[in-house]
Structures are given as C-alpha cells and as structure tokens.
What we know:
Elements: E1 12-18, E2 21-27, H1 32-39, E3 45-47, E4 52-56, H2 59-64, H3 85-101, H4 106-123, H5 134-147, H6 152-169, H7 194-202, H8 207-219, H9 223-227, E5 234-235, E6 240-243, E7 252-255, H10 258-270, H11 291-304, H12 315-326, H13 331-338, H14 343-347
Antiparallel strand pairs: 1-2, 2-4, 3-4, 5-6, 6-7
Helix pairs in contact: 3-4, 3-6, 4-6, 8-10, 8-12
Amino acid sequence: MESPVYPKGKIVPSFIIHKEKRWIRLECPYEAELIAQIKAIPGRNWSMTLKSWLVPDTERNRNRFALDGIVSQTENSGNADQPYFALRQELLQKVKDKIKLKGYSDQTLKSYANHIKRYLEAVSREMDPALMKKDDIEKYLLKRQVEYPSSESEINGHINGIKFLYEQVLGHDRMLFDLPRPLKPMQLPKVLGEHELERLFRSVPNLKHKTILLTAFSCGLRVSEVVRLKVSDIDSERMQVFIERSKGKKDRYVTLSPVLLDVLRKYMLRQKPRPTHYLFEGQEKGQPYSKRSAQTIFNRAVKAAGIHKEVTFHVLRHSFATHLLEKGVDTKYIKELLGHFDIKTTERYLHVTRDKLVHIQSPLDHLDLGI
C-alpha cells in the first residue's frame, strides 16, 4: 500500500461527484510543499467552483489518502451509484433503439447517447428521470451551465439530446425551454488563395497523396467523402464523380475536371497494387484510406508549403466553393455541388468572396483632407 502524501490533519479528503465524475476532494492549507505533492498526482485538477483540489477516485488515490476500505455515499446507495440505475439503463437503451429505427448516422447515435447518458446520471440520483417536469429540467440546465461551462455547440447538443429523450422516446409534447440558447458564433470559412493552393499541391511529392488532395479540392469533398470514393464512382464518359450517401445520407454528382481525370489516370497506372474497389486504399487491401491519414497528409503539405493560416483539410472544400463564387457561379448550383440541405449554409461563402469587395470605395476617398 502506498503511503499517504500528506501529514495527518493537513489534508481533509472526501468523496464527491463533480461535473458528473467521481473525485476525491482535498481540502488543505496553502503550503508550497503540500501543493507540489498534490500537483504531482496524475489527473489532479483545481476546482475554482469548490475552491479545492480534486483527484480521480481510484484505488491508488484511496490508498494515497488513507481512504482504503471507506465506501463513498454514492457507492452505498445501491447498484452502481443511484437508486434509479436500472431505469436509467432501460431509458438509455430505448434511446439507442429509437435512433437506430430513425436511421440516424453512427455519429448522431454516439453524440445523443453520450449527452443523454450524462443527463440521466445526473438527475437519477434524486428522482425518476421519466417524471422530470419542464421546470425541473430547466433548473438542471441552468445549474449545469454554471458548474460545467461549455461551448455553444456542446450546450446545444446537450439540450437537443434531452429534447430527443422526452419528445421522441417518452412521447412528451414538444418542449421549449425558457432559457437562452447560446448562439453559435458566425465564423466565416477560411480560404486558400490560388497561389497558396499551387504551393500546397506542389509540396506533395507522393502521387497518391497529391491525388487525394487534388480530388478533395477539385470536387469540393469532405475528407470522409474522399476516402470512401470507389473506382466505379469516377465516370469519365459523362465527366462526373458520384458521391454516395454523404452527410445526411444524400447522394450527389459533382463535375469531373479534365485535369483531375488526367491525374487520376496517371495515379491508377502507377499505383501498385492497383486499386480495385476503393479509389484510395489503406494499408489493408480492399479497405479505404483512413480519414486521419488523409488529414495528416494535408497538415504536412501545409507546413511544407509555408502556409501559416490555421486551416484543416476542410479548407479545400471551402476554397472550392469560394473560388466558384468568385468566378460567377450561382449559389444554387454550388449548393448542389456541395450537397448542402439549406441554401443559407452555402451563402456563408458570399461573405468571403473578393471580387465585389475590392471595388467598394472607402468613405475616406471622398474627403478633402488638405494633405
């Protein structure tokens, strides 16, 4: 057993659940040597809310703070940590079943299930989650926003998960909560200019890697769409590329550039072994290239090209759309090429086009400054 790291009476340890996790709370005076010992513990965290140190509730830390054999109140409350544990598990399974029945994506299933699981773990300590009223849920959400500061998308995702539980699974009427929804910041898409794109593509010596990036840009594809392309999706006769079941399970066609077709033909001739199913195969034959590997290729190319903007693989798609707009292509056509459901998503690119902005004169130009 590991010896405690503190002199008896200096640190008062106790069990606590904070931000939906189990911790050992440490209350102690501020002494440099004592704090240094706590800071050396893996996973330790200072809570501004509780004004105390928290360390993970593990067997080693229980030994470290002489808590071995002591049972926390949450552990003593029954199966797992709550009296409504069985009901919570049943509700969570119903949520997963409902999402699958609706045909939502695996990503949506994972996101909703995680949010709803955290919600059920928090509220089922005190009451049956199925009996929670609108006012109870609002109090929980307000408390959570204070104790667990999160991004706008995280908060909105949590609320959407709760709404799905009560409206879709438990059959309640539509729930409109009387609390402000955080607005997502209006972030304009980042774009690479033509010279930056040229440097980017030239900086990639490997033909396969270069072809992945060129395909993404030329067709305005997401990274997940690039790596899932099949050899049969390239239609050189009609000069189209078929994108199957992209975001929202939506099929679409995009234009096949003659330049890209020439690159693809060279790639197919030189690639050994030659792809037979997926256009870009991974290390395992017959399996698609991984998204992570494609993102790594892009990140290395950005660095090699000397591009200092903070950009991700998705900037190739943004650049594709913005350059089309600057060349006069109507947003409704770009919407179809990108596979957007809502034209408002496409219209974000109107804010970053240069052709009209550069011709607007500043009011300063019309003043006689006597200079």
